[in-house]
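Input record, target 12 of the design panel.
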């Protein structure tokens, strides 16, 4: 038995030495030291020895096991080190190689213009609201005084979701006036920028999706003079001090009186040129005093409260701000174009 043990020990140590990978090493361990291993089998046979022989054999067997375990541990450490060495070799990196330039993006010119606009209004105490693009026709039209039969409700102009024309892509940000009246405490000063949708063909000045910025003030003793003063201040901040404006009468169903605001052409200073189509003025926005019936429909007493509102196209404002000639450039997102701002 002693001889057998020594043979087994020598064989195990040779096998350990030969094992070139973790897996093989584990196989060696199982083969000799595992539950059904060869050394374990031999230990089980010790029971057959005489009581005198047993202690010496036991000691030998323990030594054999210790030697095997030690050899396996050592081999394992060696393999691990070699693996780490290979990994480091593979992943070595040269910190002196120049880095790849990172291409940083930046904000879209239209959003640069919007941020300027927001800053101006927030500075005057306005809140910035966000609202749904999928809107109820009730809020987009009825609550804004454009009842059944109003031409702007036509199927040829509006993206409806349902046969009964009750749900639509909002065609203007004006329903945000209604949402503000329904949810905010009075007095209200808010702007609401966002996307709007109309069935327009794409050309240099039209797109079926564009952005508007709505604005509204409701307070006591608010007059058309406040509207004009506020909007003149905004125009001067956007386009420079001394920029001339003019207010023209117009019609919107939800304001009375209604007006449009023009700015004097920045290109020709009012003489008339291709940019302003010979007019000397460029239309900027629609506005007016909120119709008493619109206030009433929101449960606001028009005897006590009054207000004004406005709405303008954001693309057109950004185009004028950055002197961009074609609306399509705003949406195409050609990096060569966008990088100029
Ligand atoms: N919603 C109008 C449009 O899309 C613009 C507008 C006009 C908004 C007058 C207003 C307003 O708030 O008072 O043409």
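The sequence produced for target 12 reads:
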């Amino acid at each position: 038995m002693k001889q057998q043990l020594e043979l087994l020990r020598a064989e195990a140590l040779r096998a350990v030495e030969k094992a070139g990978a973790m897996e093989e090493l584990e196989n060696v361990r199982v083969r000799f030291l595992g539950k059904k291993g060869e050394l374990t089998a031999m230990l089980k046979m010790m029971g057959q020895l005489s009581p005198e022989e047993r202690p010496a054999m036991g000691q030998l067997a323990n030594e054999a096991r210790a030697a095997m375990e030690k050899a396996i541990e050592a081999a394992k450490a060696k393999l691990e080190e070699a693996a780490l060495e290979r990994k480091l070799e593979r992943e070595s990196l040269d910190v002196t190689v120049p880095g790849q330039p990172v291409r940083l993006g930046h904000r879209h010119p239209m959003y640069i213009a919007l941020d300027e606009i927001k800053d101006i209004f927030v500075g005057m105490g306005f809140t910035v609201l966000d609202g749904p693009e999928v809107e109820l026709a009730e809020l987009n039209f009825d609550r804004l005084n454009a009842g059944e039969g109003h031409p702007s409700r036509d199927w040829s102009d509006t993206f409806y979701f349902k046969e009964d024309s009750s749900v639509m892509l909002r065609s203007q940000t004006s329903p945000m006036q209604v949402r503000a009246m329904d949810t905010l405490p009075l007095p209200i000063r808010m702007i609401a920028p966002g996307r709007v949708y109309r069935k327009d063909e794409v050309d240099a000045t039209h797109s079926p999706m564009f952005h508007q910025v709505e604005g509204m003030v409701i307070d006591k003793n608010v007059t058309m003079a406040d509207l004009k003063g506020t909007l003149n201040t905004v125009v001067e901040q956007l386009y420079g001090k001394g920029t001339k404006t003019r207010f023209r009468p117009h019609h919107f169903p939800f304001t009375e009186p209604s007006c449009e605001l023009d700015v004097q052409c920045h290109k020709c200073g009012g003489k008339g040129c291709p940019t302003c189509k010979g007019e000397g003025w460029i239309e900027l926005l629609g506005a007016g005093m909120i119709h008493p019936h619109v206030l009433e429909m929101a449960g606001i007493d028009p005897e006590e409260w009054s207000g004004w509102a406005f709405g303008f196209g954001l693309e057109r404002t950004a185009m004028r701000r950055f002197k961009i000639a074609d609306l399509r450039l705003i949406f195409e997102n050609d990096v060569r174009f966008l990088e100029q701002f």
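Residues 2-90 form one domain.
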